Amino acid sequence: MASTVFNKILRKEIPAEIVHEDELCIAFCDINPQAPTHVLIIPRKEIQGINAMADEDVPLVGHLFRVARDLARAGGLEDGGYRLVINTGADAGQTVFHLHVHLLAGRTLTWPPG
Ligand code: 5GP
């Protein structure tokens, strides 16, 4: 599969404001934030998106959500609330084909999304 900009961030070939790293994933601030808090949580494993997720990736995807929860907790976002988003495919607005969870918070988020 084609390498993405996220792979370059994983390899530290380009800079990013990294807020979490562990053996399975990293999390960093979005370069074009859509809310006061906008963090991307991505697996180290190159998975293009939810469509490409294998059954064996279920624990890994669960781990991404656990990290999102922990970041939200550490950031004091639990009371106000936050949104976790995985855009899947072009119609949903996916632009980087390396699986990622958006963690958005810090303003009132409208529903439905545009
Ligand atoms: P998607 O549209 O695929 O759901 O989300 C991709 C996200 O990656 C976008 O919110 C975009 O701003 C972010 N992004 C794209 N390139 C970079 C980059 O080089 N650095 C960082 N930190 N974020 C990026």
Structure description:
The protein is an alpha+beta fold. The chain has two helices and five strands; from the N terminus they run H-E-E-E-H-E-E. Strand 1 and strand 2 form a beta hairpin. The N and C termini lie far apart (29 Å). Guanosine-5'-monophosphate binds next to strand 2.
Give the number of DSSP strands. 5
CATH topology title: HIT family, subunit A
Q: Name the bound molecules.
A: guanosine-5'-monophosphate
CATH class: Alpha Beta
* Helix share bin: 10-25%
Structural class: alpha+beta
Spatial shape: globular
**What CATH architecture would you give?**
2-Layer Sandwich
Number of separate helices: 2
Task: List unreliable stretches of 5+ residues.
Answer: none
Strand content: 15-25%
Give the termini separation.
29 Å
What is the H/E order? HEEEHEE
Spatial strand order of the main sheet:
1-2-3-5-4
> What's the CATH H-level superfamily name?
HIT-like
Radius of gyration from the CA trace?
Answer: 14 Å
Mean pLDDT: 97
Which key terms come to mind for this protein?
single chain; 114 residues; HIT family, subunit A; five-stranded antiparallel β-sheet; 2 helices; 20% helix; binds guanosine-5'-monophosphate
Quick description:
The chain is an alpha+beta fold and 114 residues long. The protein is built from two helices and five strands; from the N terminus they run αβββαββ.
